[in-house]
Amino acid sequence: MTAHALHLETRGASKVALQSVTMDCTIAGLFAHNQLTQRFVNQENRTIEAVYTFPTPLHAVFLGLEVTVGDNVLSGVVMADAKADRGYEEAIQEGDAAVLLRQVEPGLYSVSVGNILPGETITLTYTYAEQLRWQGNSLRFSLPTTIAPKYGKPSAIGLEPHEELEHAFETGYAMAVCVKVTGELSQCAIESPTHAIRCRAADDSLSIGLSTETMAMDRDFVLVLTSAEPISTTALCAPNPTSAGFTKAEYGQWVVSAGFYLPIPEKSANRPGIFQLVIDCSGSMQGDSTRQARMAAQSIVDSLQPEDQFNITVFGSHAESLFEEPMPVNSQSLGAAEHFIGEIEANLGGTEIGLALRHACPKKAGKRSNANVLLITDGEIYESEKIIESNRHRGHRIFTLGVGSAVSASFLQRLAGATGGACELVAPNEQMAEHIVRHFGRMRQIRVTHAEVRWGNEALWSVPEDLSGVFAGDTLHVGAGFYSQPEGDATLWITYEDGSTQTLETSIAMVDVESATAAALPRVLAHQRLPQLTDSARVTTAIDYQLLTKGTKCLMTHQRAEGEKAEDLPALRNVPQHMAAGHGGFGSVIDSAIYARPMAKRRQASYSASVDTSSSMPDSLNEDYSFDIPAFLRRQVDKDDGDGSKTTKNKPKQSLSSLFSRRRKASDEQENAGTPIKTLAVARDIRWKLAGRQVHTVEALIAIPSADWDAYFGLNDAEIAELLRALRKAGFRAS
């Protein structure tokens, strides 16, 4: 299945390099095995570097990158980030093809595809695995496709200037999707609240695709699998080799993963509470998201009991509340709330979520407080980590409700998890009420004070470290490593704050060692263990298991034959994001998606939920999309051979001794002529190291082979990568 792109041309005469995206997924039990393919084509007459930032599900674990360049199929290698940066920059300088992939933050990746020659196609295929979770009697599979505009500074999450997001209403590329559901899950009722789908049943599987060949990448692709009750699964056991094929004693010889579904105890259903409803009314919530927020708020108020207390806070650049403090539920307070909700509009400016949470809950809460925050937002901010950390230890459980067609799910899930809450995501055409009912069920539950898993053998390590944030009605994934193969049952013991206990058991079964699950399981659990480790141990473990995390990147380089190398430095081409459907009030997707179920008789209709830009979009946005060329765009500087001719080809490398001998004999005037090193945007320490070797000009620097910079100047990999990037931005090619 292939998605084809239009040849979109911008006012700047550059064409979008990303031409198509394909997703192939297999869901087996509570594991989703995904292959995401991106095809880049250079339609220009010069060499380019394509930069694309793209989202993945929060819990997706990167397993591999395969790159196709012409007839060559190569694999990326995960290594320390400084080493990867240096390798990438050196390959670009040498005229070779290179791909550099990094994780910006959980659920967000950035890839640079360097030195794509004119007319050349480079295809990237990412493999990743994800553990799925039952929520009540439904299991949700969500594939994010675009990143909506965010409030704040991109640098807050670590985006480099050349990675900053650009948006367009037409991008020229589209996505094809194929999902295969196997085993008992294939008997579930399956629907999509976001897209029209078609289903084809086989003996023990169900294949799901789009009713059209491709879809615009302007919203999440969501499937909801529903069963009369959650399907039970066994604990999976697999050998624990690293990616190199050997085992390490500290990691254990075996790993086990278990997914426990916790039934809801009846006694916790009517527990009264204090509910702080916090609603995002910033500009990005205009349109569909605000309509969803109003529906959610009214559903919440309708779910209140006479013993409860509540308040409503709306926010944008500032925050304001319905009451000065939480009020009891009575006819007067409910009437005021209904009027307040009816007046909600997305007209309060920016998205100051941190300010709103402090306004709604100015004081820390006690350990046994039953005060709960329910945050309704699209989550489109950059300073997500700051908000998570500032609320982690304040004692308020934050339950998040993500609304919109391209919610920042990663942020909302992490915020809820860090504060002991939970997250629900609601697409514009999903039923709001059932999500509110589930959230209220969690908030009213008796809290878990202690939980532990007992395995057949003693575990070397286990994940997650803290199990107390579990809720009845949800799935809890746990895992552990062992010296010897565990047998028997895995048992989950739960103690509640009223002293009652609950015990759940599941048998441990060996997976087929040749299966995709057996290959993915050790790496998925190793990835979940990374937050428990020190910085150095985290990087070592990530490299052993070939995982992307803070401190590692994935690099692929392809050495081109002489005569096939790029002769000029690449022009930067940032792939634009498709503007999220309904974002900021541009068009609407509510009531336009078609629900499709895998039944013998079902209505088929073509999907027609694209953003309506004909009337609601300002004239300036109806124009052809054009790239803003950054000031730091690299340019190739022609070099004078001394006879008046210009050339961009590299001269043969010379020995260090001959180079330094010639330089020492040069006059001071010759030595200092050229472009000063201080014009390069590099750290002061780097300039000092160069000056220590009497290198004061760019021309003197690039006369020394970059492979020798570490030995001669005492530069490390990170410093060499920084220097190479600075040279490239200034238009110089290193030798």
Summarize, please.
By secondary structure, this protein is α+β, with helices and mostly antiparallel strands. The chain contains 16 helices and 36 strands. Strand 4 and strand 5 form a beta hairpin.
Your description of this structure?
With 735 residues, the protein is an alpha+beta fold. The chain folds into four domains: 18-230 and 555-600, Sandwich (Immunoglobulin-like), CATH 2.60.40; 235-266 and 447-532; 271-444, Rossmann fold (3-Layer(aba) Sandwich); 639-730, DNA polymerase, domain 1 (Orthogonal Bundle), CATH 1.10.150. Helix content is 21%, strand content 30%. The chain contains 16 helices and 36 strands. The strands form seven sheets. Strands 5-4-9-2-1-13-16-15 form an eight-stranded mixed beta sheet. 46% of the residues are buried.
CATH topology call of the largest domain: Immunoglobulin-like
Low-confidence stretches: 1-13, 592-671
Distance between the termini: 43 Å
Please report the number of helical segments: 16
How many separate structural domains? 4
The total count of strands amounts to: 36
* CATH domain class name of the largest domain: Mainly Beta
Judging by the overall fold, what is the CATH architecture of the largest domain?
Sandwich
Largest sheet: 8 strands, mixed
